Amino acid sequence: MAGVLTTRDALARAYGVGLDLLEISPNAEPPVAKILDYGKFKYEQQKKRNEARKKQKVIEIKEVKVRPNIDEHDYQVKMRSVKSFIDDGDKVKVTLRFRGREMAHQELGIKVLERIRAEMDELAKVEQMPRLENRLMIMVLAPR
Question: Main site of residence (predicted)?
Answer without folding.
Answer: cytoplasm
